[in-house]
């Protein structure tokens, strides 16, 4: 069994604490990515969306899906409490852990529903990152703010192996 940890990186100009609008365990924040079938290697045509509110809270998968090509069934289960807001340019911050059976998650897509704070403490809500960047102006601090160079990656982590615990805490 492997888990996939989604980490994000960005250039933050006069901004900090980039995270889903309701925090890293936001039940309604949708994670969009493609799934690669481990049986036949096919990629889903479009991104699929999963969010914590799709779960029943008892550990059942948040998504169950049959591969269109080889008909193998796979699932995606989200694992909360691993995320941290992105505070600094250049560092990866863990956002969400996924337990995927039969699939590998690839190509995470940034969309809407983010929040971020300026270094002067002003909140920017429902930030849309689907264009790959965000720019605004902090009225209180009187300076421009910007998010750019967004990057996301899924890292394989194997439960029980040395380093796993440290790794998920990043
Ligand atoms: Zn398949």
UniProtKB/TrEMBL annotation:
Keyword Lipid biosynthesis: no
InterPro entries to which the protein is assigned, alphabetical: CXXC_Zn-binding_euk (IPR008584)
Superkingdom, taxonomy of origin: Eukaryota
Pfam families membership: CXXC_Zn-b_euk (PF05907)
Keywords, in A-Z order: Metal-binding, Zinc
SUPFAM superfamilies the record matches: MAL13P1.257-like
MF term (GO), any: zinc ion binding
Family to which the UniProt record says this protein belongs: Belongs to the UPF0587 family.
Protein name, entry field: CXXC motif containing zinc binding protein
């Amino acid at each position: 069994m492997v888990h996939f940890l989604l980490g994000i990186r960005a250039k933050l100009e006069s901004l900090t604490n980039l995270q889903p609008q309701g925090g890293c365990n936001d039940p309604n924040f949708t994670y969009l990515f493609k799934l690669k079938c481990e049986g036949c290697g096919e990629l889903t045509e479009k991104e699929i969306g999963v969010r914590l509110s799709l779960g029943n809270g008892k550990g059942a998968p948040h998504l169950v899906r049959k591969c269109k090509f080889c008909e193998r069934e796979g699932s995606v289960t989200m694992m909360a409490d691993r995320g941290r807001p992105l505070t600094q340019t250049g560092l990866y911050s863990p956002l969400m852990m996924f337990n995927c059976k039969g699939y590998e998650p690839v190509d995470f897509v940034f969309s809407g529903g983010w929040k971020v704070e300026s270094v002067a403490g002003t909140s920017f809500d429902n930030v849309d990152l689907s264009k790959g960047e965000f720019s605004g102006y902090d009225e209180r601090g009187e300076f421009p703010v910007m998010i750019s160079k967004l990057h996301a990656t899924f890292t394989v982590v194997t439960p029980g192996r040395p380093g796993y615990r440290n790794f998920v805490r990043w």
